[in-house]
Amino acid sequence: MRKIIAILIMIAFVGIAANVVANNGPAEIKIDAKPGTITFKHAEHQKSVADCATCHHKGLEAGACRSCHDGAKAAKFKDAGHKLCKTCHKKNNGPTKCKGCHVK
Up-side HSE of residue 62: CA atoms within 13 Å toward CB? Predict the structure, then answer.
């Protein structure tokens, strides 16, 4: 009986680990903004950013960026996003002009 329980625990552990590795979030994220919608290509950014904490500084469990970046608890999402994204885009030749990310 103990062997069966141990095997079931190992199977569950492997299944959970495989799910965590496979779950890299959505390939693409749409962010609505006044100057136009940003289509954030999450999968492409994951290939070039080695550490998720570069963007997800509070961890994935913290939820959506705007849950904290509301201007009260932390800088507005617009300000935080512009600072983070534009800094990285300047270093890596990404778009830095408004219409490079915001599309109406």
Answer: 14
User: Where are the alpha helices (H) located in the chain, listed in sequence order?
Assistant: 2-22, 42-48, 77-91, 98-101
CA–CA separation, 52 vs 59, rounded Å? 8
Closest CA to 24 of 2, 3, 55: 55
Q: Where are the domains of the chain?
A: 26-103
Looking at domain 26-103, its CATH class is alpha beta
CA distance 5 to 70: 47
- 81 in Cβ contact with 65 (< 8 Å): yes
Integer Cα distance of 21 and 81 in angstroms:
26
pTM: 0.67
CB atoms within 10 A of CB 81: 20
The total of other beta-carbon atoms located within 10 Å of residue 101's CB is 22
Q: Per-block average pLDDT, block size 10, for the chain (104 residues)?
A: 65 52 80 94 91 86 83 88 94 94 94
